[in-house]
Amino acid sequence: MRSNQLYLKTAILLSVATLCTTALARDYRPPGTLGEGSQLHRFVLRDPATGHPLPEARYRLFLPGQRIAGIIPKSDEQDSVIFGVTDKQGNTVSVRLPKRYLKDKWILNPIVGEGDFGEAFSMRGETSNHPMAGLAYVLDLKDGFLFCNRTDSRGYTYYAQSYKAQTISLDYAFGSMEPAQYAWCKRQSATIAALPASAGPAAVFRQMLASYEAGKDELGADFQARVRRKLIDLAIAGRDNRQLDIALGLAPLAKESLNEVGYALVDANWMVGRGMAMIDEALAQTPDNPFILDSKGWALFRLGQPEQALGYMEQSLAAFGEGTEADLGARVEGLVHKGEVLWQLDRQDEARAAFAMATHLSPDDENLLRTLARLQVEMP
After folding, report:
1. Which end of the chain is less congested by CB atoms within 10 angstroms, N or C?
2. Nearest CA among 20, 360, 354 for reference residue 377
3. Which residues contact 211 (CB under 8 A, 6 or more apart)?
4. pLDDT value at position 9?
């Protein structure tokens, strides 16, 4: 099971999405005037981190629920979404409408990445629901780029694009993020985003490693560790022993990362023994940690020992108890793991009970839904 810190982030703010919002074929419009009406709306695209205009930069612009003459919305939506490229002063297209709308009603996102799939995050306070402006974040496209910036005045991130439906994570605890770090992120993400659609994790690993080695002096210690973890994930995705050794050899693995990396190996069902050794080392340090107990159980299950696995998973769930809202994602994952082990042991009624509890806690959990589909479990 992933670390407490990762689940805590998920509970505070939405931190994982799937890049599955397709648009009509990308037609990046040059500056000009679109629409019809007496009210002209003008915009300048700015870098949220610096406030400077972004010349010759790609963007997404729309007014929620509004149709714009000449811009056809998707079949199931009302928004006329404009994709364009700014001029040398950062100006976007201008939009004519019959009525005047305040600028804070429009959504204007700079774009990172290539492809017809995309998503942006809106960062809001958990209790206040107010936009969280100026918050440093990192967008992590699975098997793709890392990109860092700050949220804009309305709490929005960049609009991240991909060639295919893909998972993207949002991390937001990386300190001040100095200008040199932003510059490194932009260079790295632009280079990787420009790789051909056929480029796999191994190619992304090589490019990111080269960027890391050339520019690591520009990065703070926390972000260096973040890049190294990304390299480990890429090596696992590509199932490349040599790349994994390189990534792990860049710096000693922090003790708080042992369970996280070990679980990643186990969950990928690749080099499970190596992952188990990391988990055992983490468990020796904190034997009552429910996250690590679940990882141990999942590793034993992967190694064909479901009875022993179930014992560790029961300990993990008991350690959580009713838990808090911050533990919700972890409890759901633990119940899904327990359900799968019980299903393999042909204890189907007990498995369905575990899956039912997970469904009650989080009915839209992606891991839960994937597991039910893969095992062909029919729930009442």
Report:
1. C
2. 354
3. 184, 187, 188, 191
4. 42
Compute how many other C-beta atoms are within 10 angstroms of the C-beta atom of residue 128.
8
Distances (CA, A) of 156 to 60, 139, 177, 225: 12, 12, 17, 25
Report CA-CA distances (Å) from 217 to 140, 212, 307, 364: 21, 9, 48, 42
Identify each DSSP E strand in the chain by its residue range.
Answer: 16-19, 21-22, 33-35, 39-41, 58-62, 82-85, 94-97, 107-112, 117-119, 136-141, 146-150, 159-162, 166-171
Positions of the chain with pLDDT lower than 70, given as ranges: 3-18, 20-25, 173-176, 321-326
| Token couple for 289 | 């940690």
Burial class (CB in 10 A: 0-12, 13-18, 19+), 369: middle
**Alpha carbon distance 257, 255 (integer Å):** 5
Task: Give the span between the Cα atoms of 66 and 28, in whole angstroms.
Answer: 20
* Residue closest to 162 by CA, chosen among 119, 129, 126: 119
Tokens of 181: 């770090």
**What backbone phi and psi angles, to 5 degrees, belong to 63?**
-115, 110
Note whether 142 and 119 are within 8 A (CB).
Answer: no
What tens digit of pLDDT does each residue of 174-192 get?
Answer: 666 778 888 899 899 999 9
Q: How far is CA 183 from the centre of its chain?
A: 21
Neighbouring C-beta atoms of residue 164, cutoff 10 Å: 11
Q: Token pair 């790609």 is at which residue? A: 58
C-alpha to C-alpha distance for 330 and 319, rounded to whole angstroms: 12
**How many contiguous H segments (helices) and E segments (strands) does the chain have?**
12, 13
**Could you tell me the fold of the domain covering 271-380?**
1.25.40
CB 185 within 8 A of CB 148: yes
pLDDT of residue 323: 56
- The CA distance from 296 to 313, in Å, is 8
The predicted pLDDT at position 23 comes to 45
